[in-house]
Amino acid sequence: MTKLRSQGWFGKTGKDGFIYRAWMKNQGIPDDEFRNKPVIGICNTWSELTPCNAHFRELAESVRRGVLEAGGFPLEFPVMSLGETLIKPTAMLYRNLMSMDVEESIRANPIDGVVLLCGCDKTTPASVMGACSADIPTIVVSGGPMLTGKYEGKDIATSDIWRFAAESTKGTFTDEDMREAEACMCRSQGHCAVMGTASTMACMVESLGLTLPGNAAIPAADSRRKVLAQFSGRRIVDMVREEMNISKILTREAFENAIKINAAIGGSTNFVLHLLAIAGRAEVPLNLDDFDALGSKMPLLANLQPSGDYFMEDFYYAGGLPAVINQLKDHLHSGVITVSGKTVLENNANAKIYSPEVIATIDKPFQENAGIVVVRGNLAERGSVIKPSAATPALMKHRGKAVVFEDIEDYHARVNNEDLEVDETSILVLKNVGPRGYPGMPEVGNMTLPRKILEKGITDMVRISDGRMSGTAFGTVFLHVAPESADGGTLALVYNGDEIEVDVEKKLLQLHVSEKELEKRRENWQAPDLGHNRGYISHYIKHVEQADLGADLDFLRGKSGNVVTRDSH
Ligand code: FES
Q1: Domain boundary residue among 284, 315, 348?
Q2: Residue 471 counted as domain residue
């Protein structure tokens, strides 16, 4: 091991060393803690405003125990936290801001290795993006999903919110029913209990090799979550000694594995945006077409909501992600190294399936060709994504007339109007919810269907937007259209009644309007006034990239490394 980075602070002599150590000593830390011990930062996204991460102080204690056991010196620090449920207008607006906090906090401080405590959706990609740009040894510990909700004798979790909302629109689910159901659903610590974005992210970091095996699915309330945190605390100390920086884990092969595994678990469409952004920071070449080429033909091996029937708790008891990875071994780069110091194959070689109704074998998958598909056409020249496993097969090849909403406020104002010209063959189009246009690309792409459609008993229609969809949602929903409408993409030029063709097999998203007419519309189009002329959001609007690049800020791509050359004392 070369000299520890932290010794550039604590190992100094003279006035500087005095200052670096003395103020730490006010915490009652003995002198020998500063001498050549790996200093491990515990990067904590704990916040009572991020309910999914509210148990992270306990989890940090387990990490701390592990670090001490292995001879390291743990120092916990807070970073910005993003709770999906409370942050307005959308947590995605702040993912890149949080990643800057993580990156700069790591680089600016005497840290040799870092444990990232992540849970609610954006806290995982933001933490990993920041860590990539700082590039020190890094291990991730996820907070774990909630226990499955129990309501009126049925298992429920976040995906049921969309069903309850549809029932409520029809008038068959009262406010009182809502209050009762919400208490029954969130009955333990942890993040959403389905294969939504948080669980997809927990699987993503395990697939990339950034966690110890088994991280993704252990429920937050299960004591084994703390054991994993303690083991991770031990392991990061050795990673520092082995100089295993995050850049050694995040190779192109690791990203390819993650795409294939995400397809097999029916992971969230948000995976695409976040993995692209992480690859951008890690300086690993990856583009939107890689998701289709590597993932779309993969079989579905996990029967989990929102694509399937079961919950994250069931997934863990059924064998969890290790069992899926073991089934996929012939599809994966099995020799890539992970934070455990072993390869992905070695980590998961003994993993078994305990419940075949939850995890399928590779020979008998729940569905063929289940991964995210990238479609293109004049309506999405730089691409749009759809998750076939959450869509209605009959609607994946469809032609219909557009019912256009200019923005989300327009949608809310008109969607349930009796005179809205819509039937189940129509295609709902929502504009101005992209990365710049909203701004922040909210999860509104799975628009709840118009009341008069729901009353007919119809549960799905084709929907198209430049926004995102919650990983807990479902439907035949085309998302992340790029270029977005606020940037003058063809989406901005769709008028009510235009004919649109979607064909997932042909990977097509086409607006059937002549080029001449589109040209005329383009001349009349006016870019929306996005407002926001000060602060972070104005900076975000100027610099955010389109969805096909991961919606990072252009100046955050790549890394600055972990060296700090100047010293102000
Ligand atoms: Fe935090 Fe779903 S709201 S993971």
Answers
A1: 348
A2: yes
